[in-house]
Amino acid sequence: MWTPTTRRQHSRARLRYETDLTDGEWAVIAPLMPEPASRGRPPIWTMREVLNAIFYVLRGGIAWRLIPKDLPPRSTTFGYFSRWRDEGLFGRINHTLVMADRERAGREASPTAAVLDSQSVKTTESGGPRGYDAGKKVKGRKRQALVDTDGRALVLDPQAADVQDRDGARPVLRLSRRTFPFIAKAFADAGYAGDRPATATVITIDIVRKPKDQVGFAVHPRRWVVERFFGWISRNRRLWKDPEATLASAQAFLYAAAVMILVRRLGRAS
After folding, report:
1. pLDDT of 208-229, one tens digit each?
2. Which of the four pLDDT bands, split at 50, 70 and 90, describes residue 41?
3. Helix (H, G, I), strand (E, B) or coil at 220
4. How far is CA 176 from CA 13, 30, 96, 185, 210, in A?
5. Contact 72/235 with Cβ under 8 angstroms?
6. Given a cut of 90, is residue 174 above it in pLDDT?
7. Could you give phi then psi for residue 83, rounded to 5 degrees?
């Protein structure tokens, strides 16, 4: 619970940048980072500083060339980011931290229920796959998110915005079988109704519909946790729009945002 005492205890004001990893947070993520190369020139910058730079770009929404001089230069930072993106490192770290945080909360490491929803965002002139979401009147991309019932990210998949939810759900549900095979039920809105999501996997799709007499905004059971997750990651200005030229980079930043949430939570707990 956040109180004046706990806010002072976990204040980040003493850090160089608000996105810098504390000692406790680095202790959480350090064992999950790849080992330095055994050949070639020894690295000048530590993995901790490279992560600090990536998180700085993510939270600030800046271009790589605008990274401050006391952080690794853009060539180093983007080079590591590209390598980790292609290796799927952020997704693997998120998977491990999700299980650790669930166990910390007294739950089973692998969830049996999940919540599915999407978020449509505009893209920039960077190019890459995009489309037009006629329902939300957004030209850009759609972020499909499968989270557990507490809002932890399980599977994140960026797609063109013109992909219907019932079609975009299929790859997300199928991907979840590799990393979280015990999911038996997923809660979703009416956009996921139909045979395609229902027959994609053995996961049962439970449609949570709006009350017939609803007027204005209302919190819907189960579904609200995924909306909260979108609110959490939207604190990162890099995600206000999707400026990435590739879906792989867009997915890597989504998982990096999820990792930042879990690292801070586990770092405070330790």
Report:
1. 877 676 666 566 667 889 999 9
2. confident
3. coil
4. 38, 25, 14, 12, 26
5. no
6. yes
7. -65, -45
> Which amino acid belongs to residue 260?
M
pLDDT of residue 12: 81
Residue 2 pLDDT > 70 = no
Distance CA 10, CA 195 (A): 47
Q: What is d(CA 239, CA 249) in angstroms, rounded to the nearest whole number?
A: 12
Determine the Cα–Cα distance for residues 24 and 226; give it in Å rounded to an integer. 27
Return the structure tokens found at 68: 């401050």
pLDDT of residue 172: 97
Question: CA triplet 257, 238, 168: central angle to 5 degrees?
Answer: 70
Q: Which two tokens stand for residue 127?
A: 């190019």
**What is the chain's length?**
270
Kindly give the residue spans of alpha helices, DSSP state H, lying in 106-179: 165-179
Rounded (5°) CA angle 82-83-88: 95
Among 26, 264, 261, 263, smallest CA distance to 145 is for: 261
pLDDT, mean over the chain = 92
Given a contact cutoff of 8 angstroms between Cβ atoms, the answer to whether 158 and 140 are in contact is no
- Vertex 57: Cα angle to 142 and 116 (nearest 5): 25
Instruction: Report the pLDDT value the prediction gives residue 257, as an integer from 0 to 100.
Output: 98
Contacts of 184 (CB under 8 A, 6+ apart): 112, 113, 202, 203, 204
CA-closest candidate to residue 257, choices 68, 73, 121? 121
State the first-to-last Cα distance of the chain, in angstroms, to the nearest integer: 15
> Shortest CA distance to 185 belongs to which of 111, 117, 119?
111
Give the pLDDT mean for 234-241. Answer: 96
128/141 Cα distance (integer angstroms) = 10
